[in-house]
Design goal:
By secondary structure, the protein is of the alpha/beta class. It has two domains: 131 residues, no CATH class; 113 residues, Rossmann fold (3-Layer(aba) Sandwich). 58% of the residues lie in helices and 11% in strands. It has nine helices and seven strands. The strands form two sheets. It has a five-stranded parallel sheet with strand order 4-3-5-6-7, with helices on both faces. A two-stranded antiparallel sheet has the order 1-2. β3, α5 and β4 form a beta-alpha-beta unit. α1 packs antiparallel against α2. The chain starts with a strand and ends with a helix.
């Protein structure tokens, strides 16, 4: 879910507690929210690092006993901005550190030894929070495998992909196409028995039109030559036997 947050405009909020597994539509909404959040981070991280530089300049000035009132007010202002910015990306510890820093910078006691030490600690914590945000952003760069209409195999394949540092998403034919603008998979897996309806053929045609170079791997229900031939003619890159070992399938996908 995306909710409005001061400073950025939206953030990915915690989903409500639920016992049932998320539906394909819910997974799609989550992925869209994650994509929006990653895009916002890419847009705002340079600005947040500039604000961090102001705070570190203030720490250096305090260490030399040369913190001007102007730099103190500027540091207080950027600390206030980081409260909302970091909170919007779910970096709550960083947001709390920025809030505490803002409160100290609003006083006249900043030159006291205890305050100087606390300010330095809080600014160091903010740097760690920004670095954490950068590491989280790399999750969007993980190899993505799209599992279309593979409900039975999905749990094992998701686990096997995660063990390799990949991300596998189980979805439906309808929802899969809506994910493509947000995330670019490296491969698509789908079931195949050689007697697919026109809707499946149309789905493949649309997929190839959007991403001509995207490989599609089919998992066949039977080792039938005619089904394999039809799969190749439909643009499917490779056909695997039914119920393949997830680890073996991951090795195949890597190759």
């Amino acid at each position: 879910m995306i909710e409005t947050v001061y400073g950025i405009g939206y953030r990915l909020s915690s989903p409500p507690t639920q016992t049932a597994p998320p539906t394909a539509a819910e997974r799609t909404k989550t992925l869209r929210a994650q994509a929006a959040l990653a895009q916002a981070w890419e847009q705002y991280q340079a600005l947040m690092w500039k604000r961090q530089q102001v705070l570190e300049q203030a720490v250096a000035a305090l260490a030399e006993g040369a913190l001007s009132s102007q730099l103190q007010q500027e540091a207080r202002r950027v600390a206030h901005q980081l409260v909302g910015s970091l909170g919007s990306f779910g970096l709550m510890e960083g947001s709390h550190s920025a809030q505490a820093l803002e409160a100290i910078l609003a006083t006249d006691a900043v030159n006291q030894p205890q305050c100087r030490q606390k300010i330095a600690q809080l600014v160091a914590a903010l740097r760690l929070a920004l670095q954490q945000g950068q590491r989280s952003d790399t999750a969007a760069d993980r190899l993505l495998v799209l599992l279309v209409a593979l409900e039975k195999l999905a749990p094992e394949l998701v686990a096997a992909a995660a063990a390799r540092g990949w991300e596998a998403i189980a979805t439906t034919f309808r929802e899969a196409l809506t994910l493509l603008p947000q995330r670019r998979p490296v491969v698509v897996l789908l079931p195949w028995d050689g007697a697919e309806p026109e809707s499946t053929q149309g789905w493949l045609a649309e997929l190839h039109q959007r991403l001509p170079a995207l490989p599609v791997v089919a998992i066949a229900e039977a080792d039938d030559f005619s089904a394999r031939l039809k799969a190749v003619r439909s643009g499917i890159r490779r056909v695997c036997p039914n119920q393949p070992c997830p680890r073996r399938l991951c090795r195949l996908l890597k190759s």
